[in-house]
Specification:
Helices cover 77% and strands 0% of the residues. The protein is mainly alpha-helical. Keywords: TPR repeat.
Length: 1020
């Protein structure tokens, strides 16, 4: 029994010892885990620490001493490991253990974590939840700095300042930093006095000297203590931040010591690569301007750019002055344009406007000078420049080709001084000449009449009357032309440049009014001056015609012969006329020879049929009837469509009659009566028919032909004549709508009247002139059905033009070529060549374009507008083939010929070729010449400014390109032009913005919104 008790006791004790030993082992293992985890946590091995803490918490007893701490560290590790449940676990810990020491500092630690991560918003969130009272003194200072700095970094300066102020009061590791940040905040809040106190305390720490220097200098500047800024900056040793130079430069600038300001600004630019504020650029540019550093000033002020603000107004004004000093008037004009358009300073706007006016006058840009001077006078009527402005405006008007504006201005004045009368005489003359070159002859005469109303200059009056005569003559108003020419002769002398042409024009006016004896005198005066005269050959030919008409046949023959020795034009006409003159002198052999020249050498001549006819007629008149019949037959076979057919039939019938071949004579007479019953020969044919039937003692079909003749040629012509004359009166008074109705009614009422065919032509032409082309064309075709119509040539021309308008190019070409064959003078030839030129342009047939343009230029004998148009067509043909030199020659000839719209286009094309050839500056020069010479042609003026902008852009002159485009947008009247300018401006602006963003990215390795103090010396 005792043995069992002992064994039982041993067992119990053994059990107890074993149990104790097991408990001691477990407690020792958990404590080791906790300590290992804590060591890992302190070594910032948060992942490993958290794993062990979590294992510890799974195995430890709820009553274990370190359980709550393990929960805290595990939750804090979750924060540090950016686990999503970290913050929530910390909150759960604080709720579960509100009195735990770790709970009291949990939010502080969270704040510190987010502070280190520079997540200042989160840091503030937890710092605000921290109970400062539980923090140690060291932790409190740490807390105050970090929450203050967190607010500071968020620019919550009012919230940050109290914390930095607390740190300033006692010695601590954050004191210098607190002074610095408090100083910075007071600086930002414009409390400069307190900021200066704080920054000077911070400056005692060498770590803050450089950062403090800029703010301190700026405070002196903001307080207007400019000398102190300068003294302070000059006292700084060692490496100085570049912004310090900028502040010092601004201080000198404020003191108007521009030489020192420019020096410091230059130092600033050398040490800084960042983009500058526009106001800074302006101040730097202005300082450079004041010390005559023009190149630097221009570079800086151009960077200010173009905005709608006072900086732009002032910068562009000074740019204008700088460009003037550099003799770059074009850039100056652009700059002043920008400055005067803004109203932030009326003084600068007025001065810019005035300088712009002066520059425009100096550059002979009179059209724009007029516009700007007029605007200046209206806006600044009380300006000290007002008197001079009025004088300059008068001067500009005298030199302008904006004639309507000039005339309107002078006519608006209540009284004209002799100087203004002289200006009015000139400008109305120039306008008249311009209208003439545009082939607007009516308006030309109206302007020239105004010019001669103020004959201040006798010479100019003589010239005006001459061009008035030319305009009337071109419009075929020969009586009025003659009066004008004679008035010019009274006021002109032989030395005047127009005098020889005046003789020529006077001669033609007499010629066209059938005063051939007087015409002869003036043609003779003109030709006596020699072959140097432009129209010598033509005048010689007309002189021969005058001798012929006045029956001085010997002199006519001699003059025709002289013409043949001097010219190769119109040879067919001259040989034909020689034949007529020789025949009249009974020199039949010579006459036959002359007619044969036409027949054998000029089969396409308009005189070919007449030469055949005259040759036959000469034989007929020599009573050689058999040969005459043969020659009339030859003529009728060769040219069956000739207008002379009725005459040939009539003469051949007489020849047959004389040969007693009555049946053949009857055939010819009946041919006339069937096919040409309204022709003048029809009456003779009827009489011949009657006579032959009488000889044959037959009635035949005479009565039938007599009735037909009466019907076609009614005896009562009075009523029809009245209606016809009324219709023609409407036509010649240019009332074409009513004229067409009247002619149509006449043709319906008198279809068989002899005038019906003529009425048909006038009907067609009335439709044509009223632009009723669809009605006109078929009627013109009807006119051409009558082979005897005297309107054939004109109808052919109109059909050719109308088929061209209808895009029937092949038909149009056929009729223009037919017109060329029918041409009797240079004007007819021009009309044909002009049409063929248009067709060649449609086909892009460059060889034909050049061919017909050359014919018009060399032989057209037309107005200058037609010649300049031909030169431009020729130039465009060469241009489109890439033959720029030949194109330039043609365009230059157009410009030399006249200053009309075609010449403006030619000037533009030369500039475009220069641009295409990358000769940009020359292109700009050419375009400015265009603006001066052709300012009245808005289309080419607008296009020229767009091309100027393109040139500037390609040269990298973006400021000038933008200024030019802005000028178009503000001043142009064409919506299309404005839209194109806006598009180009947008593209340039976008490119500038792209370049700026690249530059800024390159210049700014790190740009912060606030100044950061060095924190190297601050330890947590």
């Amino acid at each position: 029994m005792f043995k069992e008790i002992i064994l039982l006791t041993i067992y119990f004790v053994s059990f107890q010892l074993t149990a104790f030993a097991q408990k001691t082992y477990v407690d020792y293992g958990a404590s080791d885990q906790y300590n290992r985890a804590l060591n890992l946590f302190n070594d910032q091995q948060y992942n490993a620490a958290q794993t062990i803490f979590n294992t510890y918490l799974q195995n430890v007893d709820e009553r274990a001493a370190n359980k709550s701490s393990a929960e805290y560290y595990s939750a804090l590790a979750a924060i540090y490991l950016f686990q999503s449940d970290g913050e929530n676990r910390i909150k759960q810990f604080v709720d579960a253990y509100p009195n735990h020491p770790k709970a009291l500092e949990a939010y502080f630690q969270l704040g510190n974590f987010y502070y280190r991560e520079k997540n200042y918003a989160k840091a503030i969130q937890y710092y605000e939840k921290t109970n400062e009272k539980v923090l140690s003194k060291k932790e409190l200072k740490n807390f105050q700095f970090k929450i203050g700095y967190s607010y500071f970094s968020r620019k919550a300066f009012q919230e940050a300042l109290p914390y930095f102020n607390q740190l300033k009061r006692v010695d601590n590791q954050y004191q210098s930093a607190a002074y610095y940040y408090a100083g910075f905040i007071n600086y930002e809040l414009a409390d400069y006095a307190q900021a200066l106190v704080d920054l000077e305390k911070a400056e005692e720490n060498d770590a803050y000297k450089a950062s403090v220097a800029e703010m301190k200098a700026n405070i002196f500047y903001q307080q207007g203590r400019f000398y102190e800024v300068i003294n302070y900056v000059e006292s700084l040793d060692g490496r100085v931040p570049s912004n310090i130079y900028l502040i010092a430069g601004d201080a000198f600038y404020a003191l108007k010591e521009y030489d020192k300001a420019a020096e410091y600004f230059d130092n600033y630019r050398q040490g800084s690569n960042k983009s500058n504020d526009r106001a800074v650029l302006y101040r730097m540019g202005y300082a450079a301007f004041k010390v005559n550093q023009n190149k630097e000033a221009i570079e800086l002020l151009e960077k200010v750019g173009i905005e709608k603000d006072s900086l732009t107004q002032f910068s562009t004004y000074y740019l204008g002055r700088l460009y003037q000093q550099e003799n770059n008037s074009r850039y100056a004009i652009n700059a002043y344009q920008q400055s005067k358009s803004l109203s932030f300073s009326e003084t600068i706007a007025e001065e810019s406007h005035w300088q712009l006016c002066l520059l425009l006058i100096d550059n002979a840009d009179y059209s724009n000078a007029i516009k700007e001077l007029s605007a200046f006078i209206e806006k600044y009527s009380n300006s000290s420049y007002a008197t001079e402005a009025n004088e300059l405006l008068s001067q500009a008007y005298l030199n302008t080709n904006a004639y309507d504006l000039a005339i309107g201005f002078i006519e608006s004045l209540p009284e004209l001084t002799p100087k203004l009368k002289s200006a009015y005489q000139k400008v109305t003359f120039y306008q008249g000449a311009d209208y003439f070159n545009q082939a607007n002859f009516y308006q030309s005469v109206q302007s020239l009449k105004k010019s001669v109303a103020y004959p201040q200059s006798k010479e100019l009056a003589g010239k005006a009357y001459f061009w008035m005569g030319e305009a009337y003559s071109t419009g075929k108003k020969y009586n009025e032309a003659l009066k004008a020419y004679l008035s010019s002769l009274d006021r002109s002398i032989e030395g005047n440049e127009w005098y020889q042409n005046l003789l020529y024009g006077t001669a033609y006016a007499y010629y066209n009014t059938k005063q051939f004896q007087n015409a002869l005198l003036y043609f003779k005066k003109y030709t006596n001056a020699g072959k140097k005269n432009t129209y010598f050959s033509d005048a010689q030919l007309r002189l021969a015609d005058c001798y012929y008409v006045t029956k001085r046949y010997g002199e006519a023959s001699t003059t025709y012969q002289n013409y043949l020795r001097n010219s190769s034009d119109q040879m067919d006409y001259v040989y034909f006329q020689l034949g007529v003159v020789n025949a009249l002198q009974n020199k039949n052999k010579e006459a036959f020879s002359n007619y044969e020249e036409v027949i054998s050498r000029y089969k396409n001549s308009a005189y070919y049929d007449n030469a055949l006819f005259q040759k036959a007629l000469l034989t007929f008149e020599s009573s050689n009837y058999e040969l005459a019949v043969s020659r009339f037959k030859e003529m009728l076979n060769q040219v069956p469509q000739s207008n002379l057919v009725p005459y040939a039939l009539s003469k051949r019938a007489i020849a047959y009659y004389n040969l007693k071949q009555y049946e053949l004579a009857l055939v010819d007479y009946k041919n006339i009566l069937r096919n040409h019953i309204t022709h003048p020969t029809a009456n003779g044919a009827l009489l011949g028919l009657q006579e032959i039937y009488g000889i044959k003692n037959e009635e035949g079909d005479f009565d039938k032909f007599l009735a037909a003749y009466k019907q076609a040629n009614p005896n009562d012509k009075e009523v029809s004549s009245i209606e016809y004359d009324a219709a023609k009166s409407l036509y010649f008074n240019q009332n074409y709508g009513k004229a067409s109705v009247a002619f149509k009614n006449y043709m319906e009422n008198y279809p068989d009247n002899a005038l019906a065919e003529e009425a048909k032509y006038y009907l067609a032409d009335s439709y044509y002139r009223a632009k009723e082309y669809n009605n006109a064309l078929p009627v013109f075709y009807e006119v051409l059905e009558d082979q005897d119509t005297p309107f054939k040539k004109r109808a052919v021309q109109k059909v050719a033009e109308l088929e061209l308008l209808a895009d029937n190019y092949e038909k149009s070409s056929n009729y223009f070529n037919q017109l060329l064959k029918l041409a009797e003078n240079a004007r007819d030839q021009y009309n044909a060549w002009s049409g063929l030129l248009q067709l060649a342009k449609i086909r892009n047939d460059y060889a034909d374009i050049i061919k017909y343009a050359d014919l018009i230029i060399n032989k057209g004998n037309v107005n200058t507008k037609a010649i300049t148009e031909a030169y431009v067509s020729k130039g465009m043909a060469y241009f489109n083939q890439g033959k720029y030199e030949q194109a330039k020659t043609a365009f230059s000839a157009a410009i030399e010929t006249a200053k009309d719209e075609n010449a403006a286009e030619a000037k533009y094309m030369i500039a475009l070729m220069q641009y295409t050839s990358e000769d940009y500056q020359t292109s700009i020069n050419t375009l400015f010449e265009l603006n001066n010479q052709f300012a009245s042609f808005d289309q080419w003026l607008g296009k020229s400014f767009l091309l100027i902008a393109d040139n500037y852009y390609t040269l990298g002159e973006l400021f000038q390109a933008k200024a030019t485009l802005n000028s178009i947008i503000e001043n142009a009247s064409s919506a299309i032009l404005i839209d194109e300018a806006k598009l180009k401006l947008t593209l340039i602006t976008q490119e500038e913005q792209k370049l700026d963003s690249i530059q800024n990215a390159s210049d700014s390795v790190m740009v912060t919104d606030t100044v950061k103090a060095p924190l190297d010396s601050i330890q947590d």
